[in-house]
Amino acid sequence: MDEQKFVAGLKKKFPFHYGLGIGDDASVVGSHGHFQMVSSDILIEDVHFRLQDISQRELALKALAVNISDIAAMGGRAQYFYLGLGFPSRLSGKELRHFFTGLSQGCRKWQVELAGGDYSRAQKMSIAVTIIGQSQKPVLRSGARPGDLIAVTGPTGESALGLKRLLAGEKRSPYIRAHQRPQPQCAQGLLLSRYANAMIDVSDGLLLDLSRLLAASGTGAEIAYEKIPVTRSFQRACRRYRFSEKELVLAGGEDYQLLFAISPRQESRLRKTKMVYYVIGRVTAGRRLLVREDGRPLQVAVFGFDHFREKPAGMK
Amino acid sequence: MDEQKFVAGLKKKFPFHYGLGIGDDASVVGSHGHFQMVSSDILIEDVHFRLQDISQRELALKALAVNISDIAAMGGRAQYFYLGLGFPSRLSGKELRHFFTGLSQGCRKWQVELAGGDYSRAQKMSIAVTIIGQSQKPVLRSGARPGDLIAVTGPTGESALGLKRLLAGEKRSPYIRAHQRPQPQCAQGLLLSRYANAMIDVSDGLLLDLSRLLAASGTGAEIAYEKIPVTRSFQRACRRYRFSEKELVLAGGEDYQLLFAISPRQESRLRKTKMVYYVIGRVTAGRRLLVREDGRPLQVAVFGFDHFREKPAGMK
Q1: How high is the ipTM of this complex?
Q2: Low-confidence residues of chain B, pLDDT below 50?
Q3: Which residues of B touch A124 (CB under 8 A)?
């Protein structure tokens, strides 16, 4: 089963009459400049994280961050959330308190509030967060038009590099930190709601998330690899550990940068703000996603990615 | 750790400024006759259910039912929900389809819609549902006043009897069915929003849930055991299997009946509707919860229940 088929099947089986349901970063219900967005994400021990790799405090912050990112990706402001926590009895009460300390820090940092939830014992720790936000003008995945520019708010691949190093036994590095403490692009998302035609957060990899945005918009794109932001130290780290830089940049997940399509006219306006972003390509009329490096097409299929085919079951 | 302390600690650590947050069946945000309620519940394999005891279809219906019941318990109408599904790869795609078939049946039955969610592999199946509903006049747990009558919409203990028989290896009986297919009291909840002062659903046991309502209201109560509805066949089944009838009726969970406090004046109005309910006691000014049988006090502590002390950690 692939995700796109699965989601398409669900959309058909479960029509949603209150607004926009399954298929974007969040649902959208509302009208006339008052929209409520809701997003729901789960994190499960030994699927999304291993307890030895991340502290309870960081885990709570991360669970909150990835949900806040979904609201930011639609140009909204996150307000409050619900927590469904499955907590293993093998962990101590102290660990549980650390989790709630992290959650409380996240609430202050991102100005969100805990509104309710549920708690249960569990064999494997699981964290389900449902977050509610609002927007005057939600930005959907489906608004990209041929001729739009494609841009990203920052580098991708750093979190994936951190994860690889964690799995190799390393304890600390800026990349491990990027993996453990993702930063949702809240201010950027809000600002972009005034300029962008379509938006998504890069949670599962630049090309995969871009392909979702393009599929929703019914368009294709051409990306110039050399325009994607990559730091010198990231390149050095890739060489040192013999990681494929392109694979990390194009297919590495969990950076939570915002990826957006914007008309050239709006982009010239956005340029006057102080927001940092990088134009990496252009939306095309076809359905193809083409990545070039200095003009030569890249075989992106070698990165486990083949145009609109998605990752196999499991999805994350 | 006991739940009441845990929840009180969370309420203090996580103030909620949008409305009513932690501590009732659902959060409530809104004003002037337009209130949005949100409730979030998790069901985890081998904690809340065993896969051999319930079909995927019934499991989906049950996950939906318990959340809808939370909205009904506040006098609201459930509208749409978000699903966070952790699904074990040892289960087949067919099982997954059965789950969504059940979910779809629940949507039709209770007039709710799936608005979004998340899906992941998991070692143990986990189902997180966050449901959104609305009400013109939410009924909180905290509105009971001394002199109010206490009533319940139907028998309790039947689901717990069903669970005991399931664990003993029985496959089918009306009680097992009551356990596998709980029926949220939607119409009753809506009607009661016009009459009741306080309400809760009986998810964790009559006395435990009553104690929560009383604690939230700052009141006590006197209950007459002989007024709690119990069917003849239930009594016979208890005798046959040597189960303590009182323990099941007073402490058995998952019946999802509504338990409410109502002023005598409103109760005389409610009597004119066709709704079935049973007055089982009265709210008192103290903080004590006293259960009598034909006038003689019952030692309710023997049912694992001691006034305002809650169940130990785990909570469900």
Answers
A1: 0.90
A2: 304-316
A3: 122-124
